[in-house]
Amino acid sequence: MAALTDLTLAGLAAAMARKEASALEVADAHLKKLDEHRALNVFITETPDRAREMAKASDARRAKGTAGLLEGVPLAIKDLFCTEGVQTTAASHILKGFVPPYESTVTANLWKAGAVMVGKTNLDEFAMGSSNMTSHFGGVENPWKRRGDNRKLVPGGSSGGSAAAVAAYMVPGSTGTDTGGSIRQPASFCGVVGLKPTYGRCSRWGVVAFASSLDQPGPLARTVEDSALLLQAMAGHDPKDSTSAPLPVPDFAAAARNPDIKGLRVGIPEEYRADGTSPEIVALWDKGVEMMKAAGAKTVEVSLPHTKYALPAYYIVAPAECSSNLARYDGVRYGLRVPGNDLAEMYQNTRGAGFGKEVRRRILIGTYVLSAGYYDAYYKKAQQIRALIARDFKDAFETCDVLLTPTAPTSAFAAGEKMDDPVTMYLNDMFTIPASMAGLPGISVPAGLDKDGLPLGLQIIGRAFDEETMLRAAAALEKAAAFTSRPAGY
Amino acid sequence: MSLDKDTVARIARLARLKVPEEELVPLAGELSGIFAWIEQLNEVDTSNVEPLSSVSDVTLPMRADTVTDGGIAAKILANAPGGAVYIDPDDKNAGGFFTVPKVVE
User: What pTM, to 2 d.p., does this model score?
Assistant: First the structure.
């Protein structure tokens, strides 16, 4: 049998069901990988003791015949999900010492399905970033390297640790959150599958908030089917999140196991041929179009005319919501406190010392656009643009069932390569942000390697609450692309 | 749109963020760059467009106005950075207080 850590999530679950391995053996095999690859700085907190305890409990459940969907499967959890009794940092200094007294709904759902937590993964501070370089705990190293080049590359972000953990075979799956591309872009950079569900599909309760109208939890895994299995367990209506959709959870795994796309209409948005996109990515995209056609889909040219405005509109909406959400960090009830001569000074000192540069930048942008006299010019304008973006997608879905686009405009870059100017970094999310603004589901599937040997992903965008069709198309793309490359040494 | 040093200092104060004096000018430059890039939104005519504040179609649900949680004062106070004061140290769930610097002379 293959090494336990080489199995897919579905394969691992099947091996445990056949009693070929216990959950404890599976946990130990993966914990060993965490030891071996600690230099990647993937985890902020490792939880080996809890993993073994959970694995033993899982084995006991299986012995009793009450195995869940993810029974015994080891998972890495983005350190943005509150986990009861385990430090949760959001990769920020301001949450220093914070140990949540409660469990997020999504992680609680995963444990209910039998999954085992091995640790909390590194991320951009408060999920704000596309490189993992803004973490207070240092950047994560991408397990992939350019051929013949030993420089360390970023894993993307913000769910960079979660993507790298899966790419380095430390876990078969992980959780991420996606506000403007934070699951899909790192998935593309690390050669794994990353799925952002429809806004409202997974509960945001217990997830440290960044931009509440955009934030959405979702899975990362090595196959489309594995991502569907994870979503199956994570999703569901939660009365504790007022934006959680009161809908039943469909059989996502069944959709992912059915790559039949004969007659499916795949939209190709012309506006995604943006300047600055690497020619290799455009070529891969064209190849993806051919793959979908060869699998029996019909491709349709569609237009999303407001695409180029999604990114600047996002950089009003997201910072505005971030400045409001992050107002809670005042040094009074949890986290860091830096003393001052009076209460106002204590707030200012705490927040000045606790937030990193990117978070500070976004709080300032958000405070400015929401301040008296500027609200209409910025925030209202951005919400109007957001309405136009949502309408573009609605119109496009009149003539197609899913959209096929690149996930990111480049492959992984080296630490420091794009740090000179914030806007250059923001452009990383140009292909993921439009769907986020419209609340639509998107999935990044590894589809090939660039000339340097780095993975590139393609994105399938679906209709709201139609992850099933999106998964079917993603499974067809995965099958045709047959991506089997692994980072050297992992 | 160009932001000057004084504007940055003002919004930093509004956001209760201490920004060191020497960082105000570089920050003003960075933020001005971002706002100059955002200016392109003015190319779009939005005169008759309803702003979209939420993508979820559902209207916010109502719930019964009943107590659904409680009796967990100890849990809530456990993370207090300045330490907590409990009404009854032998029964921390009976209630208590976060502590802050003295604010009234």
Answer: 0.97
